[in-house]
């Protein structure tokens, strides 16, 4: 039984909140550079240039790349041989988020859904825990902005609709979302499970590196086809018209009930933030 | 690039068309969801607004906290449609410009024609870069709202693009129709 103290966890979460908001991943920066090359629209090219400059300022000056520093989504992978010591794991995660957002000058954006009164701590975080074999303890912090979250959807399709209905729904979602989710976006799609399972899987699909290959050949082909269809809509960077609306499409599938075909689409803005640490 | 200064006048606005790149200098007022509701509640009660809205531009933004050495944190636009329910009421009392991102409702686009007002988009998510054009910030109302409080921002060479002008044109529609191809084409 490996012991991990909550003080280690609090500090790791604190640091990851700041890192995630200051430093855009190399995979996203690479996608911006490719976008700058392939974009036909002058407005679109100028946007890719601005986003590269913005990421550089954020990294150098240690300021958030976007003022919307997100709702803090925390993915935990906890080995069943791990014993957490010194207090509650959930409290430790939330303490780390509170400290990270305070010390890192990150915006606190979490409020009561009715009164809209801000909790002023950016907590509670959304914590998604997987219990796994062994003694690993891995934390991934994925701050998610409200603008792109508002454009995400979960739906229950009819099984007879099959792949075509799935693809049409995803393309239509992008068409309707238009400029709202801060394109260029990453389109994460989860098929199967239950409505809540699909929603979590779609969020998890955002963690995949842009440009990485889907090991499932059928899904890989769907990703390529969807990327072309979505970008052919012409919505472009920031919705001003152009070739690059989506930087990538990431699909996950999961078995479902014989009567259902759940589908979740999670759009992520170009500030596709996630940082991880293994303790 | 068209250079304009605040407050906005009918003449300045008449010269702007959807697609124009604009550099704004002067003052912007910030407001987002809850601040808009409070402003419209004041109007409903027949009370004064906490700032002079005549000729003003409202920037839909909730900045991140500023570091001790900085005037402002990161400060990019938030999505505008959430303010659609309030925009016409504010145009009616003199607001002339809005800065945000994303498409507006048809009634807001029509109101811009009627009231001779204009809608600009700044680059969503380019918040650290946009902050470089903000010279000073003071809170003018609703400090309790934290990032959502109303601020007066002095800006210099604040870059944005005209989305909706007073002729009813919409850059999102124009841009998309120029680049869309293939079987999912909508128009």
Bin the strand percentage of chain A: 15-25%
Distance between the termini of chain A: 14 Å
Number of domains of chain B: 1
Using the CA coordinates, give the radius of gyration of chain A: 19 Å
Order of helices and strands of chain B: EHEHEHEHEHEEH
Order of the strands making up the biggest sheet of chain B? 2-3-4-5-7
Chain-averaged pLDDT of chain B: 95
| Shape assignment of chain B | globular
Q: Summarize the amount of helix of chain A as a percent range.
A: 40-55%
- Total number of beta strands of chain A: 10
Q: How would you describe this structure to a colleague?
A:
The complex is a heterodimer of chains A (279) and B (187). By secondary structure, chain A is of the alpha/beta class. Chain A has two domains: 2-21 and 65-144, no CATH class; 147-271, 60s Ribosomal Protein L30, Chain: A (2-Layer Sandwich), CATH 3.30.1330. Chain A is built from eight helices and ten strands. Chain A has helices spanning 6-22, 26-38, 42-61, 89-103, 146-149, 162-177, 195-205, 217-232, and strands at 2-5, 71-79, 82-85, 126-132, 137-144, 153-157, 185-193, 246-256, 261-268, 275-278. In chain A, helix 2 runs antiparallel to helix 3. The longest helix of chain A has 20 residues, at 42-61. With 187 residues, chain B is of the alpha/beta class. Chain B has one domain (2-158): Fe-S hydro-lyase, tartrate dehydratase beta-type, catalytic domain (fumarase), CATH 3.20.130. Chain B is built from six helices and seven strands, in the order E-H-E-H-E-H-E-H-E-H-E-E-H. In chain B, helix 2 (33-44) crosses helix 3 and helix 3 runs parallel beside helix 4 (106-115). The longest helix of chain B is centred in the N-terminal third of the chain and has 12 residues, at 33-44. The radius of gyration of chain B is 16 Å and the shape is globular. The two termini of chain B are 30 Å apart. The interface between A and B is large, with 52 and 50 residues.
């Amino acid at each position: 039984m490996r012991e991990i103290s909550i003080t280690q966890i609090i500090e790791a979460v604190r640091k990851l909140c700041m890192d995630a908001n200051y430093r855009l991943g190399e995979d996203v920066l690479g996608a911006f550079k490719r976008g700058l090359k392939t974009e036909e629209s002058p407005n679109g090219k100028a946007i890719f240039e601005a986003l590269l400059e913005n990421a550089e300022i954020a990294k150098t000056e240690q300021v958030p790349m976007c003022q919307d520093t997100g709702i803090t989504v925390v993915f935990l992978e906890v080995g069943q041989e791990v014993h957490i010591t010194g207090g509650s794991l959930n409290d430790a995660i939330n303490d780390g988020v509170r400290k990270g957002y305070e010390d890192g000058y990150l915006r606190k954006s979490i409020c009561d859904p009715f009164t809209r009164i801000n909790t002023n701590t950016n907590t509670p975080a959304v914590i998604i825990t997987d219990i796994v074999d062994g003694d690993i303890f891995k934390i991934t912090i994925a701050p998610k902005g409200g603008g792109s979250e508002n454009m995400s959807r979960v739906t229950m399709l009819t099984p007879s609709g099959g792949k075509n209905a799935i693809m049409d729904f995803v393309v239509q979602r992008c068409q309707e979302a238009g400029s709202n989710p801060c394109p260029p976006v990453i389109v994460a799609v989860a098929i199967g499970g239950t409505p809540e399972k699909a929603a979590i899987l779609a969020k998890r699909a955002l963690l995949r590196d842009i440009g990485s290959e889907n090991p499932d050949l059928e899904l890989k082909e769907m990703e390529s086809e969807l990327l072309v269809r979505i970008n052919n809509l012409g919505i472009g960077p920031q919705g001003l018209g152009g070739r690059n609306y989506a930087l990538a499409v990431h699909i996950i599938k999961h078995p479902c009930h014989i009567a259902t075909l759940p589908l979740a689409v999670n759009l992520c803005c170009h500030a596709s933030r996630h940082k991880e640490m293994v303790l | 690039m068209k250079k304009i200064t605040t407050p906005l006048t009918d003449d300045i606005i008449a010269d702007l068309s959807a697609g124009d790149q604009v550099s704004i200098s002067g003052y912007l007022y910030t407001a987002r969801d809850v601040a808009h509701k409070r402003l419209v509640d004041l109007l409903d009660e027949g009370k004064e607004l906490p700032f002079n809205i005549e000729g003003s531009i409202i920037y839909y933004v909730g900045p991140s906290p500023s570091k001790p050495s900085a005037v402002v944190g990161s400060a990019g636009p938030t999505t505008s449609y959430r303010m659609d329910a309030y925009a016409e009421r504010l145009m009616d009392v003199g607001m002339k410009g809005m800065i945000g991102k994303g498409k507006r409702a048809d009634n807001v686009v029509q109101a811009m024609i009627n009231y001779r007002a204009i809608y600009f988009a700044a680059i969503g998510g380019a918040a650290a870069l946009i902050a470089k054009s903000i010279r000073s910030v003071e809170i003018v109302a609703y400090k309790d709202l934290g990032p959502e409080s109303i601020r007066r921002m002095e800006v210099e060479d604040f870059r944005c693009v005209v989305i909706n002008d007073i002729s009813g044109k919409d850059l999102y529609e124009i841009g998309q129709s120029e680049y869309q191809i293939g079987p999912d084409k909508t128009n």
